[in-house]
Amino acid sequence: MSNITVWFIKSAMVYFVLAMFVGISMTVAGPLYPYKPIHTHLNLLGWMSMMIYGVSYHILPRFSGEPLWSDRLATIHLWTANIGLIGMIAGWMAAEFGGGITVLHIFSLIEGLSVMFFVTNMFMTVKAAPAMKKPMSK
């Protein structure tokens, strides 16, 4: 596996564990738990998306029969996806403690940009297979 694949999968597992701990604390705190958005984002952007990214970087180039379009863009994607998510968590916490939501907005944009990096890289990597020739009928 490539380093990008490994780092995305390892990141996913770290976020999964963090989401589990936040989820456990939610059960103790009750229905007015203020960090539901953090739990949700750790699960969806951290655990699920990072795992999908890692598996996609490993499998889709092989299915396509083409090398990854840009290793550099994949590395930038790795960094922006993680920075964006961690920044969003900080933004949710700041908003909960009476801070502005500017931090959340900025890091949400970084996260959105990371998604565009992924889509661009996959879009340019995945190519249609050549059409199969039809067998001649008798």
Q: What do these coordinates show?
A:
- The chain has 138 residues and is mainly alpha-helical.
- The chain has one domain (3-125).
- 77% of the residues lie in helices and 0% in strands.
- It has helices at residues 3-29, 36-64, 71-96, 102-125.
- Helix 2 runs antiparallel to helix 3 and helix 3 (71-96) runs antiparallel to helix 4.
- It is elongated.
- In terms of quaternary structure, what is this? single chain
On the 0 to 100 scale, the average pLDDT is 92
Low-confidence stretches: none
Strand content: under 5%
Number of domains: 1
Give the topology, please.
Layout: H1 3-29, H2 36-64, H3 71-96, H4 102-125
Overview in brief:
The chain is mainly alpha-helical and 138 residues long.
Give me some keywords for this one.
138 residues; elongated; mainly alpha; 77% helix
